[in-house]
Amino acid sequence: MAKLRRGMAGRGARFLKDWSLPRQLAGESPMSTAARSTTSENLRPRLEQADRVGTSICPFCAVGCSQLVYAKNGKPIHIEGDPRSPVNQGTLCPKGAGTLGVLLSPQRINKVLYRAPHATEWEERPLDWAMERVAQLTKQARDETFVERLPDGKVVNHTIGIGSLGGATLDNEENYLIKKLFNGGLGMVTIENQARI
Description:
Pfam families: Molybdop_Fe4S4. The protein is an alpha+beta fold. It has three domains: about 1-40, no CATH class; about 50-105, 2-Layer Sandwich (Phosphorylase Kinase, domain 1); about 110-195, no CATH class. Helix content is about 35%, strand content about 25%. The protein contains seven helices and eight strands; from the N terminus they run αααβββααββαββαβ. A hairpin with an 8-residue loop joins strand 1 and strand 2 (about 65-70). The protein is elongated, with a radius of gyration of 29 Å. The mean pLDDT is about 85.
């Protein structure tokens, strides 16, 4: 028991000696070394390990906040706001600050998964196959549901068999082109944007 007390007393004395507050209360200036401790002396900048810094744009909304992506050995280790950006001036909202977690999540799907009709299992497919399938099914749905004229003869040239839900990260120019392609080219009526949800 005495040994335990001596050990605790020794740790307590080291703690009080190392802790900056007692030294400052004893009269040492907080602008001097009194504000330092063993812990603070051993701290290193968290981004010191990065061997590259790249720029990116936050993927979560159409504001387009700039980000600095710190990487080590080709893998991102930290993401923060870019202070050079006139948009966000180095700040990020909670969603943007969580970009690294989304990027490195083990649950993130980064390959094409396909489940055939009535199947219970997903299977990997090549991206080219998926893009071709989307194009074929879009054309098939449009061809099967396209209406040129209403029963009264009014020209409508539209389909309600397919629709579009755009992402919040799309900017005005991208939305303009999507509207032109989907509405004018394919005749889609149902066009919505996730930013309104």
